[in-house]
Each structure stands twice: as structure tokens, then as C-alpha cells.
Amino acid sequence: MEHVTLRAVGEHVVELVLNRPEALNAVSTAMARDLVEATSALAATRGTRAVVVSSSAEKAFCVGADLKERNGFSDADLIAQRPTTAAAYRGVLDLPMPVVAAVHGYALGGGFEIALSCDLVVADDTAVVGLPEVSVGVIPGGGGTQLLTRRVGWSRAADLVFTARRLTAAEALAHGCVDRVVPAGTARDAAIEIATAIAANSPVGLRQAKRAMRLGLDVDLATGLAVEDSAWRATAFSPDRAEGVRAFAERRPPVWPGDA
């Protein structure tokens, strides 16, 4: 993969690096293909308990779609590209393990949508986020209209989408667009620290908790509780649960068999 890099950054933690710095990680067709490949590989692994999504670009997490590439597109080209870009964003969203975004600099349009597709967003003081798509004649198409609304509510999402305005890190935290703000230059380290803490827990428990939370998000309470019960059963009778109880009784760190 040329524009996305996967690397281990600790036991059971993998970093997915957006790696097209010369274009501030603008999502070209080639980069979207690499994201699909990378997330497919991560989804198929059993030893990865948490993922950090970061950027190799100095001034940006990701500035969104590659508009220079799209400027030369015909309508047919745009339609042909759509399944690939949609699969790229969905690949991040559908990762079965917890995912933490490490955001610095610009995270705009599709770049902000990549962050929104993660479970937690850590931003440093330099972060600037926004969904400016209506200012260039389209709408957020990488999940932004849905994910931002679910994160911050209708009125705040409408304000940001309809005005196309950008938020500083402090404003993004106040709006609920990001979860933590850290000093400039430390977002990646903070995200890895969070992911490492997550990865100390049961891999079966982590995946089932994420599954229950995601599947239960948009259903009625009774259905959500049924989803939770199904996920609970998947953990309650797993080797991880037996090991967790045994380790607690023996006052030692668990050795989770769920990675096997």
C-alpha cells in the first residue's frame, strides 16, 4: 500500500497511518483503495485489540477528497469512484475493534469523516475540523451527515453542515465533535496511550461491547436490550470470561485466550 501504512505500536495495538503527506492526505482514488485494503486486513486479524488512526502529514490529519483529481472527472468518473470511496470510509467505521483517531491540523470534509468513523477522537490544540462540502456544491458523503448528527445532535450538526464553518479544537470539544483535546504535537501519543489501555482488556469483550453499542444505536430500547443480551451471551460463555474471573480470583493479570 502506497498511501496507507499499518504498523504495530505496542502489544495488540496497530496504527493505521494516512500517508500521503505531499497532498495533506487528500483522499484520491488510489488512497481510498489503500484504505479499503488496510481496513480489510485489520478486520481479518484476531490479535489486534485496538487501532489508532493517525497522519504522517505535518499540517493535517486529512483535508478530505482530492478535489484536484476530481476537477478532471467526468460524471461517469465520479460515479465509478463512488463505491471505492464509500467502502474506504465504511471500512474504518466497520472495524470490529475499538478505533481511536489522533487528529492534528486540518481534518476537513472526508478527513473529518474518517475521524468521525472512529470510536474516539483525540485532537491536539492545532486541530481544525469541519464539513465544508456544501461550499463546493455537494454534501458530506463519507458518513458525515449521519455520524456527526448522532454525535452532537441535529441542531449542532445542522449548524456545521449548512454553514460549512470550521471549528477549532476547543470549539470541537465543546460541541462534542471530539472527545479529548491535548497539547499540540501530542495527539498521536495520547491516542496510543488510550488504545494501549483499551488493549489490556478482553478482545472478546471489546468486540462484543462495540457490536452491542453500534447495533443498538438506532433501534428502540427493547431491541437494543436484545442486542446487548446476545452480545453478553457471546462473552459470558467464552474462554475470556473464564480467564477473567480466574485471574481476578488469583490476583494476577489475565492472559486472554480470545486472540487465538
UniProtKB/TrEMBL annotation:
<keyword id="KW-0456">Lyase</keyword>
<dbReference type="Pfam" id="PF00378">
    <property type="entry name" value="ECH_1"/>
</dbReference>
<comment type="similarity">
    <text>Belongs to the enoyl-CoA hydratase/isomerase family.</text>
</comment>
<dbReference type="InterPro" id="IPR029045">
    <property type="entry name" value="ClpP/crotonase-like_dom_sf"/>
</dbReference>
<keyword id="KW-0443">Lipid metabolism</keyword>
<dbReference type="InterPro" id="IPR001753">
    <property type="entry name" value="Enoyl-CoA_hydra/iso"/>
</dbReference>
<protein>
    <submittedName>
        <fullName>Enoyl-CoA hydratase-related protein</fullName>
    </submittedName>
</protein>
<dbReference type="InterPro" id="IPR014748">
    <property type="entry name" value="Enoyl-CoA_hydra_C"/>
</dbReference>
<dbReference type="InterPro" id="IPR018376">
    <property type="entry name" value="Enoyl-CoA_hyd/isom_CS"/>
</dbReference>
